[in-house]
Amino acid sequence: MSVLPAQAAAPPRYGGVRGVVRRRPILSFVVLAITASWVAWIPYVLSLHGLGVWDFRFPGDEGGQLLGMLPGAYLGPIGAALTVTAVADGRAGLRAWARRLWRWRVSWRWYVGILAGVPVAMVLSGLLFSGGEVYLPSAAALAALVPGLLVQMVTTGLAEEPGWRDFALPRVQRRIGGLGAALAVGVLWGVWHLPLFLTSWGGFPEVPWFRPVAFVAFCVIFSVVMTWVFNRTGQSLPMSMLLHVSINNFASVAWAEMFPGMDRDTFQNALLVAAGVAAVVVLVRSRGRLGYRPDATPDVHGHEPPRTGGTTGLPREAARLS
Known about the structure:
The structure is a single chain. The protein contains ten helices and two strands. By secondary structure, it is an all-alpha fold. The chain has one domain (about 15-300). A hairpin with a 4-residue loop joins β1 (about 310) and β2 (about 315).
């Protein structure tokens, strides 16, 4: 009597919204992140901080960003990343996503490079556009850099980077490589900000047409640098957050004192130059790979790829992460 081999149970099939999210996690994340933030920002855009349709000012800071803008930022990228990861990848995916949130243990050189390199690069690029009007920042501004950085980490950094870098980037890299993913995520990251140009955040009502374009261009170019740092630090999200908010923090705390005659759009041009130079450097240094190696990068569940090569079963030789 012959015995039929046992067959593995077929994976469960999900219909409806859950099925769409599991089959299209990247698309689901993008739609949810942008929709949630844009809808949440409607009161801010309509208020006196924006179009002025609603006779209301958000309390707190002068621009109303803390209560008008920040809640929508939290609902968007990080909220979408948490939701889609839970639905598409379950507990294993959530654990891998959370582990990258706490990956602080990297070489001290990364901390020094980011914390010192960002202000130096910004000042050097600012000198090109300053017309010679440059001043040293005050002691009060220098003292405010550290607390300002901490605030930026739990506001801007935490709201945005767990979505764009921790959720989207690893998945998109596996499809189109490091450089393609950097450009794609950069475009989405920039477009996500566009409604804010209808508010005081973007300088409304005096917003020339090229300002949002220049901002999106900066996001795309700087995303190249962000991707390289993310990959070279073993997908450390804190390092990506630190790189992002170091720009915001120095611009908010010290820039106006150092370059008082520089307007918003000239400042944006200075950032474009600094980001462009940095992007060229990392592209050349990494030979266009931006530190991404499919054979050595964990999947979205945190599983390491097989370490054997070909049919010999011998371990692959360790390669320098470029």
